[in-house]
Design brief:
Layout: H1 3-15, H2 17-29, H3 31-40, H4 47-58, H5 65-70, E1 75-77, E2 89-91
Antiparallel strand pairs: 1-2
Length: about 90
């Protein structure tokens, strides 16, 4: 599907604390888990579209820690310092 589906999914995640927690957990599992969560919520996008969406989201601007935790573009480092909101950090 289009980037529009990915953007709509992102907006839905940002609007729900419960879904945001699920998305954070899915992100720790990898892009496939985020794609599966999106599908469960009615949004169709691929891992490749997810990666492209992350590039587009960044738009040359630095993402906040919250935004970084919501996207699946990084690798979770369980040994990194703790983020007070999500409990982990993303390695860029």
């Amino acid at each position: 599907m289009s980037m529009q589906a990915l953007e709509q999914f992102y907006d839905k995640v940002r609007a729900s604390e419960a879904l945001e927690a699920e998305a954070t957990a899915a992100m720790q599992e990898g892009a496939a888990a985020v794609v599966a969560l999106g599908a469960r919520e009615g949004f169709s996008f691929t891992a490749e579209e997810l990666a492209a969406g992350l590039d587009r989201l960044s738009g040359g601007e630095e993402l906040s820690e919250t935004d970084l935790d919501l996207v699946a573009g990084g690798v979770v480092n369980p040994n990194a310092g703790k983020n007070p909101v999500f409990g982990s950090k993303i390695i860029h």
